[in-house]
């Protein structure tokens, strides 16, 4: 199907654009009353994720309501550990919880890499197909997965954590087990992303939310080594790598075969551009908290960020997912400001 708006794909590939494309991580979710209304008709988050028609509906909501330049499929990074054998629950107000965890070799039966992603994750693929049919080419659809290190964090810890010290402990006490687990997650992630692309995802993103808790050397060995394998395998569409908190690794990330690098709000766009040159697109990176300020200030902060861009290779986003209590009107101001911004002759 021909896309009517392919700005984000052109920006990812470093092609000509008329203006910067804009979307928000976590845009399909709790900031919208329309999302909460759909969610209230179901038993919970998981039922929504596993019901393709409803997942497609909430995926399209931010396109209709906020006017973003891309949709991101409504799902979660935790569907991968579940498909491999570790079931999770999403506990209201608390977050994910896994009954079992992986701590020793004898737990590896809970991380099966010889699975059929079409069977285990067919509901996501179906949601992608329905979304594209209903979007009818209005904007591209982004597929995603968690990066292997972040998925390992949840498989080992079993829940959210500020430090993920059980996961980091494994890197010191049993690096062989950590590598085996990362290898298995990588295998499944490649198959899963390829299946998403086959189903219709126009670009894909890896979320490495816990990249920043590792030092540079450990992140190279346990994080980027596997991201690089995924980037080598995904040749069909542009890939974005979002390694939150991994400022010291930006140049290494830029050496992987990704098209776009996601920046969190602590990273300086000017410095990163200087460090990586023009070979990769930069995505980001307004502080999500900036959207708590007045409309005038949101506008000022957004323009301030845009003025720092010295290249056309940018996709505008926040530096992390939008917070649930943000007023959708502020999100609209952010998006409008980006769309009205006149592209200088860069
Ligand atoms: O971006 C989107 O709009 C698409 C959907 C999406 C969700 N999760 C839906 C969701 C995406 C891309 C994710 C990614 C994700 N999930 C990450 C990586 C990005 C990041 O934020 O760092 C991580 C670490 C997870 C795991 C996860 N899922 C946690 C820790 C939680 C609980 C805390 C929270 O943020 O709500 C979730 C739940 C979740 N995933 C919700 C949504 C809309 C909230 C569930 C609800 O509706 O109650």
Provide a descriptive summary of the structure in words.
The chain starts with 6 loop residues before the first helix and ends in a 6-residue tail after the last helix. The protein is an alpha/beta fold and 346 residues long. It is globular and about 60 Å long. 46% of the residues lie in helices and 12% in strands. The strands form two sheets. The protein has a seven-stranded parallel beta sheet, sandwiched between helices. Strands 2-3 form a two-stranded antiparallel sheet. A hairpin with a 3-residue loop joins β2 and β3. The chain has a single domain (7-340), classed as TIM Barrel. α4 crosses α7 (122-135), α8 packs across α10 (175-199) and α14 runs parallel beside α15.
CATH class: Alpha Beta
The CATH architecture designation is Alpha-Beta Barrel
Give the averaged pLDDT, no decimals: 97
* Cα shape: globular
SSE string, helices as H and strands as E: HHHHEHEEHHEHHHEHEHEHEHEH
- Into which percentage range does the β-strand content fall? 5-15%
Percent helix: 40-55%
Ligands in the model, by name, code or SMILES, are:
coproporphyrinogen III
What is the number of strand segments? 9
Q: How do the strands of the widest beta sheet line up side by side?
A: 1-4-5-6-7-8-9
Sheet of most strands: 7 strands, parallel
Q: Helix count, per DSSP?
A: 15
SS-based class: alpha/beta
Rg, please? 19 Å
Keyphrases for this structure?
binds coproporphyrinogen III, globular, alpha/beta, 46% helix, seven-stranded parallel β-sheet, 346 residues, TIM Barrel, 9 strands
């Amino acid at each position: 199907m021909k896309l009517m708006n392919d700005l984000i794909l052109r920006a990812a590939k470093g092609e000509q654009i008329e203006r910067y494309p804009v979307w928000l991580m976590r845009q399909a979710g709790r900031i919208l009353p329309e999302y909460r209304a759909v969610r209230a008709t179901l038993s919970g988050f998981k039922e929504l994720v596993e019901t393709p028609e409803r997942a497609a509906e909430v995926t399209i909501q931010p396109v209709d309501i906020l006017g973003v330049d891309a949709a991101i499929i409504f799902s979660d990074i935790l569907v991968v550990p579940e498909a491999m054998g570790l079931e999770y629950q999403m506990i209201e107000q608390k977050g994910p919880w896994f009954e079992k965890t992986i701590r020793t070799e004898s737990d590896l039966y809970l991380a099966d890499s010889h699975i059929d992603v079409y069977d285990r994750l067919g509901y996501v693929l179906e949601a992608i197909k329905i979304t594209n049919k209903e979007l009818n080419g209005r904007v591209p659809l982004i597929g995603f997965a968690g990066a292997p290190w972040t998925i390992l964090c949840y498989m080992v810890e079993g829940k959210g954590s500020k430090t993920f010290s059980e996961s980091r402990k494994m890197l010191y006490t049993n690096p062989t087990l950590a590598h085996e687990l990362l290898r298995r997650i990588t295998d499944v992630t490649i198959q899963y992303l390829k299946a998403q692309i086959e189903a219709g995802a126009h670009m894909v993103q890896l979320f490495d939310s816990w990249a920043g808790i590792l030092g540079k050397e450990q992140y190279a060995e346990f994080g980027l080594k596997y991201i690089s394998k995924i980037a080598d395998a995904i040749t069909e569409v542009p890939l974005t790598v979002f390694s939150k908190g991994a400022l010291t690794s930006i140049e290494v990330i830029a050496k992987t075969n990704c098209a776009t690098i996601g920046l969190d709000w602590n990273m300086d766009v000017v410095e990163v551009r200087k460090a990586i040159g023009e070979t990769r697109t930069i995505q980001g990176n307004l502080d999500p908290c900036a959207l708590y300020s007045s409309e005038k200030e949101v506008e000022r902060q957004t323009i301030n960020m845009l003025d720092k861009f010295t290249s056309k290779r940018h996709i505008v986003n926040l530096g992390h997912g939008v917070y649930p209590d943000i007023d959708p009107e502020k999100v609209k101001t952010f998006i409008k400001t980006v769309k009205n911004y006149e592209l200088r002759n860069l």
